[in-house]
Amino acid sequence: MFHEEKCDFCGECLARCYYLDFDKESGAEAFQKLVEGEKSDWLYDCVTCIACNEYCPTEARPFDLIIQKLEELGDFTDPELKAKMAKRFAADGEPRPVTPEGKVMSLCVMEGSMPWALHGQLFEGLTILKGRHYFCNVLFTHMGDESIARDRLQALVDNLASSGAKEIIFIHDDCYCLLKGMAPEYGIELPFRPVPIFEYLRDYLKEHQDRITKLNMKVAYQRPCASRLTPEKDYLLDEIFELIGVERVARQHDGINAICCGVELAGPNLKLFPRGKNFEPFRDKNVQDAKDSGAEAMVFLCPMCYRTLGEKAKAAGLNNLMITDICRLALGEELPEEKPL
After folding, report:
1. Are the C-beta atoms of residues 260 and 225 closer than 8 Å to each other?
2. Residue 245, Cβ neighbours under 10 Å: how many?
3. Can you give the residue range of the structural domain that contains 50?
4. Which of 52, 73, 94 is the last residue of a domain?
5. Are residues 222 and 326 in the same domain?
6. Alpha-carbon Rg for the chain in angstroms
7. 78-82, 136-140, 307-311: range with lowest mean pLDDT
């Protein structure tokens, strides 16, 4: 929800955007016109990376207004495609009943996107929730739609709560960020505590330090867009890296300065950005920045980032690892042969 009362029209949100051509003065003017309801063609150059919410010094949540306006336009993404995808991810009926044994983890629908990364001792003894009943629908934000995730949020919370768990670990950061960073804006209360995957991995590694072999590796981290909603958890990643002997290289495009991976395909023939936006220069800049900073590998939290940047990273001589992959390596496990890239 955009908080107009907090906005001082400083222009910071648009001036810092990598994808829009504004300075602080022109950005302030453009955003004020947007608030006042004037036509703003620059909206079509938005890549829905949510960065402007993190850039905003007054926490006015400017992206929340941008996504509202994009939905009102109705043609940011092909409406027919969006409707098809909304139907595809709709959950019918009630989720399968589960009886929690130990900790509970939601995989959302990530099993199909990164099956190789969801095995090994990290996942032993967990009660797993997976499938469309636990899908967060944040994907539709990248299609210029805020209402699908919002309108399905209460059902998602109810489905998760039906597990009886008091804490639920989320391997998909979109899910965690929706529940932690967006649900309060919609006035939805959670009857459980959402736990980011970073917290779970950090705690697991601390409890099993006797199994860890330091990797002595330098890595670049690719921060996903949804993480903009919960930047306060980033310190947990540094604790993970310290535990496993990994150096997170200092580079330009990390943290608040991260670049969106520019994902264009959500699946076969499902284009998120059919508007001709050219992301190649940004992808090239991102990977080159990692390489120039001395990284040996790119570490990912989002499987779509992995798919989008993996080929370029590999071509640059970088290994591609999901965050669970690198933890498994430190715990002495071998990664499966079917791991892509």
Report:
1. yes
2. 13
3. 4-73
4. 73
5. yes
6. 20
7. 78-82
